[in-house]
Amino acid sequence: MRIPNFARMARAVVLPMLLVAGPAWPASSKSIDEAMSADGLQRIKVKGIELAYARPGATLAGYKRVELDPVEVAFHKSWEPTKTGSNLKLTTAERESIRTGVAKAVRDEFVRVLQDKDGYPVVDEAGPDVLRVKVNVVNLYVSAPDAGTSMGRSRTYVVSAGEMTLVADLIDSETGDVIARVIDRREARNTGYVSLTGAGDNAAEARAIAAEWARILRRALDNARELNARR
Question: The whole model's pTM is what?
Fold first, then answer.
């Protein structure tokens, strides 16, 4: 069986739709359904997730460990930030600091939540009991109210609410079969902003959003484990 190239599919189909879709996922969701159907996936309902698809008959039962790919982060196509009080755009290094900061925050939370309390060890190898998880964050829209040009000042970036979207694949680590795919847009809590200080080292709100995503995956694994144990 030929395994679809997710990165190519995401660029060609899913990501353009995410860039134009509104918060309510309008008519374009039909096109997403069609694309997923061609990939052998069917729409399912998952509490807390806007769009979820699974391979018919697939189950998470039997997976005891997780292989977590490096998290990939892509900014919104219209993101052209300038430093506060000037028309100077952020440097390539500053943009990369934000991107890698968010990627680290998201991955750290997935590792923490999945492994917590006799959970699912995160490993770097495939195996019959290993679920491979590929996480992508897209549509990240960032403004930079304080770029912090002096050595003694911390850099503060703000990620606008509603512009942080998860696109993730759950994959059998041995066969490469995509078991499920999810797409979910999240907003920051309370203030409406995700604050990244120290070039992304203190991404509290980004971590909170990632933790919610990770808890949904953890619950799905736990439920599958419990159902399997009852048989």
Answer: 0.78
